[in-house]
Amino acid sequence: MVSLSTIILAAGKGTRMASRRPKVLHRIAGEPMLHYPLRVAMRLQSKKIVVVLGYGHKQVEDEVVSKVKNSKNIQCVEQKPQLGTAHAVRQATPFLKHFLGDILILYGDVPMVRVETVRTLLSLHRQEGNAMTLLSTTVQNPTGYGRLIRLQDGSLMGIVEERDLKPDQKKIGEIYSGIMVAKASYLFSRISHIKKNKIKKEYYLTDLIAMALEEGEGVGVFHWGDSREVQGINSLKELAEAGHWMQQRMKEEWMMKGVTFIDGASTQLESGVQLSSDVVIGPQVSLRGKTRIGSGTIIDQGSVIVDSVLGRDVSIQPYCVIEESRIASRAHIGPFAHLRPLSVVEAEVHIGNFVELKKTRIRKKAKANHLSYLGDAVIGERSNIGAGTITCNYDGQKKHRTILGPDVFVGSDTQFVAPVTIGRQAYIGAGSTITKNVPAGSLALSRVDQKVIRGWIRRQRS
After folding, report:
1. In a domain, 461, yes or no
2. b/e for 443-456, b at 16 or more Cβ within 10 A?
3. Number of domains the chain contains
4. CATH number of the CATH domain containing 112
5. Hey, how many other C-beta atoms are within 10 angstroms of the C-beta on 226?
6. Which strands make up the sheet holding 292-293, listed edge to edge?
7. Does 296 lie in the same domain as 171?
8. Does residue 143 surpass a pLDDT of 90?
């Protein structure tokens, strides 16, 4: 089988983005644009991946490339100065000059292309034995693009730039996407022969195509019908449009796997999210990062879940915020609950409205149903946390832990001044401030005795 290496052209500044960030760092579905062609290249098992960077190259390398898993076969190179696409490809030559397979050329600002589409391109290229094969598409408004001119038999005659088109050729809607695959031997033997464009003073890959046609080499074309997939992103408007389509595409894929979206138009998914069959997603839900949702879980309106793992048959009531937490099967969360990072909710736990957890483990079947803050704590199995309970975990310098054993009952309006440990089956009276450990099976109270002054109102009003 012919081996593959990939060159990703990602040097553009993106002036029309009106942003200081390099263009390829702008995000679609939670990930920088550059992640998507990188992922395609890796899924195709590219032997080497060379990313050609320009504006903000160090920032791009630090934020994207260095964070890719198994990135040992990824090499970054700076294009300086930036003198066109052919010049960019030439920067990759030192890293690939001994490579004998096929070279795939992708773009850092074309994030929507699917790996299946590129596989089909590669298959056609190899079946036909071409020196290179181009990926083309048809657009409704091709103004500004070069057009593919074909012979009567459908083979490629050439690519004509907009300014050189004859009147009848301007009606042609087929354009070259920029994506191609070429034999490494042909690409690197000819790339240095491309001459500088007289008008723009740059070197263009389209001239390599013209060179191959003049030499009688096989130049194939794979036409792809959905132009959105190969659209370049050059403005924030185009970024938003691509993001909208990416959302639609991801939701359709998940619906085919048994996920229900009550109002898909208002739901936001990031590309790293993993869902399961029989998950139900309510309106205005946002699922972000590496969140994983187990089968049968229902997430109701307005909830935001970030980098968290939810088990099977979990119920998330409206307007919860869950960050970097783990929730086991059949737990019930919310409404209006906030689980901050490193919280763990075990099976069949109830976390109710306006309860906040931070770095806390709630053990199986425990309940905290109302208006509580539990931070740096462990709540034992089947324990009940009354409304208004607070773990006072910070002394102004350090955080301290509160530990409750199994079957503890905590009355309303209780404060635990950490560090403190409460034994199993202890009972904490309402309104208590607990500053010392409580042995198992004990009752702890700290409130003052109630005082009743009879006739006080009458005397005050007389």
Report:
1. no
2. ebeeeeeeeeeeee
3. 2
4. 3.90.550.10
5. 13
6. 292-293, 309-310, 326-327, 344-345, 361-362, 377-379, 402-404, 420-422
7. no
8. no
pLDDT in tens, 306-357: 999 999 999 999 999 999 999 999 999 999 999 999 999 999 999 999 999 9
Torsion angles phi and psi, residue 198, rounded to 5: -65, -30
Helices (H) and strands (E) in the chain, counts: 8, 38
Q: Is residue 221 part of a domain?
A: yes
CA–CA separation, 212 vs 131, rounded Å? 8
Domain span including residue 314: 236-444
281 and 192 share one domain? no
pLDDT in tens, 162-215: 778 888 888 899 999 999 999 999 999 999 888 888 777 888 888 899 999 999
- Prediction pTM value: 0.89
Do 196 and 283 lie in one domain? The reply is no
Structure tokens at 278: 């029989």
Give the residue numbers annotated as catalytic, written as ranges.
Answer: 370
In this structure, what DSSP letter does residue 359 have?
Answer: S
Q: What is the CATH number of the domain that holds 288?
A: 2.160.10.10
- 205 compared with 365, residue with greater pLDDT: 365
Query: pLDDT tens for residues 48-65?
Result: 999 999 988 889 988 877
Same domain, 134 and 271: no
Radius of gyration of the chain (CA): 31
Length, in residues, of the chain: 462
How many angstroms separate the CA atoms of 247 and 27, rounded?
13
The two three-digit tokens of residue 251, written as one number: 């939701």
